[in-house]
Amino acid sequence: MFAHIDLQIETVLILAAAGLMFRILQRRHRHTVDTRVVSTEDYLYKIARITGASEYEIFRTSAADWPVSESMVEKHFKDYLRHQMTPCYVNDFIRKHRHQIDNLELPPF
Q1: How far is CA 6 from CA 19, 20, 96, in A?
Q2: Is the pTM of this model over 0.85?
Q3: Using only C-alpha atoms, what is the Rg of the chain?
Q4: Residue 39 in 3-state DSSP?
Q5: Residue 87: what are its φ and ψ, rounded to 5°?
Q6: pLDDT per residue as tens digits for the range 7-51
Q7: Per-residue b/e over 43-55, b at no fewer than 16 CB within 10 Å?
Q8: Angle at CA of residue 86, ends 81 and 87, nearest 5°
Q9: Residue 49 in contact with residue 106, Cβ under 8 Å?
Q10: Cα separation, 52 vs 100, whole angstroms
Q11: CA 79 vs CA 9, 50, 89: distances in Å
C-alpha cells in the first residue's frame, strides 16, 4: 500500500515539475517576444495586411512626395526583396506613420 502511495506522490511531483518548467519557458518566450525590436519589414508587412495593398504599392505611395522615378522605385523594391534594404523615402513614410501603424491591430487572417 505504501509503495502505491509513493508512486502517486512521485507522479504528482513529476507533473508539478513539468508544469513549472512549462510556465518558466512560457514566460521566457513572452519576454523575448515583448522585447523584440519591430523592423522595417514588420511595418511594411503590417501596412500591407491592413490596407490590402502590396508592399510594392507601399513603395510607390512612399515615393509620391519624393523626386523618385518609377524605374528607381522598381529598382529599390528589387533591392528590398533581395537584401531587405529600404530606401530613405520608405523609411520616412514609416517614421511619419509609425504611431498610427502601432495603434492598428492586424486582422487575424
Answers
A1: 20, 21, 65
A2: no
A3: 24
A4: coil
A5: -75, 165
A6: 688 888 888 888 888 888 888 777 665 566 788 999 999 999 989
A7: bbebbeeeeeeeb
A8: 130
A9: yes
A10: 16
A11: 61, 24, 14
> What sign has the CA pseudo-torsion 17, 19, 23, 28?
positive
Instruction: Show Cβ contacts of residue 43 under 8 Å, excluding neighbours closer than 6 positions.
Output: 94, 98, 101
Element (H, E) at 43: helix 40-51
pLDDT digits (tens, 9 = 90+) for 55-102: 999 999 999 999 999 999 999 999 999 999 999 999 999 999 998 888
Residue type, 81: L
H/E segment holding residue 33: helix 2-35
The CA-to-CA distance between both ends of the chain, in Å, stands at: 55
